[in-house]
Amino acid sequence: MADPVSAERSRRTTRRRPVLRRASSLAEPRAASGDRRADAPRGSASAPRRRQARRPTLRPRPAGRPVVLLAACLSAAGCYSLGVRPVEGIRSVAVPVFENLTLRRGLEHDLTRLVRREVLESTSLVLARQGSADAELRGAVVRVDEGVLVSGPAEEVLASSVTISARFGLYRGRRLVVGDDLDGDGAPDAELLLQGFAEFNAVRGETRADATAEALRDLAEMIAFRLGDPWDDRYEGNDSPDAAQLLAPGRHAALIQRDADWFRFEVPARGSLRVRLRGPSSLRLSGRRTEPSGEGDPARPREATPRTAGEGPFPLLARREAQGLEALGGAEPSTLLVCVEGDDEGRPYALEARASADDGAEPDSTPARARRLPGGTRRWRVYGIQRDDDFVAVSVPRGLGLRLRFLLPDRGPLTARLCDAAGEPLAGSRPATPARPLKRPPQERSERVLVRISGDDSGRPYGLLVELSTP
After folding, report:
1. Which of 118, 147, 278, 296 could staple 220 via S-S, CB 3.0–4.6 A?
2. Considering the entire predicted model, what is its pTM?
3. How far apart are CA 162 and CA 213, in angstroms?
């Protein structure tokens, strides 16, 4: 029975298709430089006759074709670069288990696992075993601190923080190649000390374990970022709204501002998203909402200036702070574009994002936990999400009146009532509604009143203008 391969070669020779023979010659170097009969057994049907042994003329193969194909693949995949450039000569790193100098068990294993994963995801380094790697990352968990951020009237702890400190260094043999330069000579002479921070709120059901895990992730992110020569952060390329990097809620550390950095966050429907900038005061945080241009179309940034209350069914930014902002969601999920700008001098910073089914002022559902308005002004814009009663405390000086007006064009069952310290409605005071504002005349003495915002508890976003008025 004839060999199928030999039969195929015989068929190609009979048809005399030089293009196919040239491809075969390129694929089989022996036939191109030696006896062609060496490829087939003697006497087989595929052995070429002597009169067919004429060497075909080979067309030169375009030398630039692989380069063109590679360039096409790279352009199709987009331009991507790592923010962490490894130290010259280091391509692989070993990450042994960190030491644990604290009384908290298991922190060293959790941190080691997170650092290894972060090295693989955010750097071009390859993990290797000790002894075979170009460098070795050694470190230790040195301290765990907890603090009280917010306490209640009965001294109960409402919000706490967890700070985990760790030191590490990248060693090449016995020489420290990545560390802290204490004497300023350009060479590392001590291990770096970094801190991971997280907070947890017992009222929202958050636990110490959740905050510990977040602080460890924060540490791992910073350690991996310090393993090289950082010109910019790992998200570089996000210098325009179209190239904004999608971030999940949580803390994103080790960011560097060398140009405009754009990020996008998902705002939950009938929920809120708070974004806070942690960094030097020279950095500025701004944001704007993107909305779908049509059913099935991707979200596009609006060319207009950021919307304020009264210009739509919900505000773009519910609350601006010195280094933070809050966005309220409407009936459908939306996207918030956030931009960090500064002096382009490579300032490090971090972003903290927290998504919630309610607004950031919670818990403000009782008179004792009423939201307090800042002083120094006679006009406030109060934004929130009505899932329960929201209380706002207002101090009204003697001789000034009080006005309440809903800002958003919502005809839902929202009311704003003036109440006493116990949360009971004031006698003779009618509530404000989206269709009808409230005006309270000046009183003979100063007073502190509460504004209770109520509704159908359906997660409806609202805006309320609180204003002190003169007679």
Report:
1. 118
2. 0.48
3. 10
